[in-house]
């Protein structure tokens, strides 16, 4: 498995994002909130993912972009946790709900916990 996060793996469809927030289920592991939905999508990959950081908590675009970059990197390195266990196609959006930036190591650990919790929820 390649540890890349290409264009086909990212959630870009406005229709899917609207459907995700309207019908999706949510889980939280501070400082992350994941909204996920089992739905057919156009990608060959089992999951499509999007990342968001609210402007309300981080006024400067530089800060928001840095957090999104760290979130993408931690997900990219750990996506095999999800890909090995998931058999149906999913879309999910990971939002940063914290009010201050965390270190890369903390985000890595929290992302791992979030993905494991996602696997638990989808297996039920």
Automatic annotation (TrEMBL):
InterPro entries the record matches: Ribosomal_Su5_D2-typ_SF, Ribsml_uS5_D2-typ_fold_subgr, RNase_P, RNase_P_CS
MF terms in GO: ribonuclease P activity
Main EC class the enzyme belongs to: hydrolase
Known EC number: 3.1.26.5
UniProtKB keywords: Endonuclease, Hydrolase, Nuclease, RNA-binding, tRNA processing
One protein family per Pfam: Ribonuclease_P
Catalytic activity entry: Endonucleolytic cleavage of RNA, removing 5'-extranucleotides from tRNA precursor
Sequence similarity: Belongs to the RnpA family.
NCBIfam families: rnpA
Role, per record: RNaseP catalyzes the removal of the 5'-leader sequence from pre-tRNA to produce the mature 5'-terminus. It can also cleave other RNA substrates such as 4.5S RNA. The protein component plays an auxiliary but essential role in vivo by binding to the 5'-leader sequence and broadening the substrate specificity of the ribozyme.
PANTHER family: RIBONUCLEASE P PROTEIN COMPONENT
Subunit and interaction comment: Consists of a catalytic RNA component (M1 or rnpB) and a protein subunit.
Family annotation (HAMAP family): RNase_P (MF_00227)
Protein name per its UniProtKB record: Ribonuclease P protein component
